[in-house]
Amino acid sequence: MSIYPDFQAQGYDVIGELGRNREGGRITWLATNLNTNQPEVIKQFCFAQAGSNWSGSEAHAREIQVLKGLNHPGIPSYLHSFETSDGFCLVQEYIHASTLAEPRSFSPAEIKQIAIKILEILVYLQNRIPSVIHRDIKPENILVDEQINVYLIDFGFARIGSHDVAGSSVFKGTPGFIPPEQMFKPTNATDLYALGVTLICLLTGIKSTKIDQLQDADDPYLINFRHLLPRLSLRFIGWLEKMVQPKQKDRFTNAEAALESLKPLDVIRLPAVDFSETVLEFKANRLGEKLRRDITIKNPIPDTLLEGKWEVAPHPQDPPHTPDHHAWISLRPAQFSRNHIRCQVEVDTSKLMADKRYKRQLILHSNAYPASHTLTVKVQTAALPIEKTKLPYSLLIGNFLLAVAVPVAAQRGSVEAFWVLASILIFGSMAAFETTKLTLPVSGLGISVGTGIIIGFNTFILLALTGTGLTTLFMLLYPPLKRRKLIAKYRQSEKSLIKP
Questions:
Q1: Are residues 146 and 160 located together in one domain of the fold?
Q2: What is the Cα gyration radius of the chain?
Q3: pTM assigned to the model
Q4: What residues make up the domain containing 447?
């Protein structure tokens, strides 16, 4: 035996239940139209159903009266109706969408979009003559599809002008979503209260059946929610608080006023990040130097507080590190909570290779939008502190040849000797620009050779040649050998240094 009612005689095959209101004697079914093979919604009113305390057979006619007159893309269309043995059925367009009561996450922009579309529906209802007050706005009665199209359903408790759709004096609405005036004299501000509570459910994630957890102990119509939404903009919070004021006079007068007030607001007001510069360049003048640069960060968004924490982005050449500690880059302060802050970036080049260029990224994680911002750090390390002496070989050779000529000039006369010695001094002073120590041994070697040419290479001359020659040879070979040794020693130490 089927658990669903048989409406095939009326041209429908019921395929599922969409909702049930036992106290109201209403069940909503999903059915297939046997003529069109399209899904449609059947709302069944069971006037004599056990457990139902909602009476008045004229109620269905009142809802039909409302729905027939409505023509809005956010309200499912009325199709037709038919009688049953125990009541009445109303057939409406089927909307493939979920209610806001079903678990689902929305972005701040989407939540604002939903609020605007509901308010646009309410503006349409309130501008009708006579106006229509829904009186049962809640998450279960709002459909939202994947494209954020919004639909308002269930007009069973609606009021047309001064008349109830349900036509009875029983309590109408859902506890927690009704303002104080709803039972006696609802106005255009009445539906705003319920919409505000619905948005609070959506923003806080609280179920509609648990809304009493946010009700004030002294005034159940006062909803305390501000503490649950610290990231929302203060202006939007103020707008939402005005929507749910217990007293009508403290709310917006109608949906149009609430809509115009909402449109320019940002749901979430986040800080922003402005850097004084986005690329920091460092250049070391000596090995092991610690370099420092300051960077200023500002938050230009009023009524917000910027909170941030620095991290050096991982790099394949850097040793493993934590967000709080890096091998050669440090920042002070590492985290902050201010709208104007100067941070110092320090680079320790003692752990870097000489004469290399390094490039790393700094990441600022913050409560701003976007949540992460990057800075580029470029470092040029100092060259090796090992001098490469470039010897003035042409000057030294000239100095040597002139020195050889000194004994010859001395033999010929004092004038020639004077000019030769003067030339030696000139060449020597020129050579001294590059190396002073080599001038004397080269000159001594030249004079020894010149003297040997004139008087012969006797024992004393050979000793002089040996002394000056070895000294000259040592002074020519030692600097490059020493430099090569120092370079080899540094290259060995480079193995423990961080590569670019």
A1: yes
A2: 46
A3: 0.57
A4: 393-488
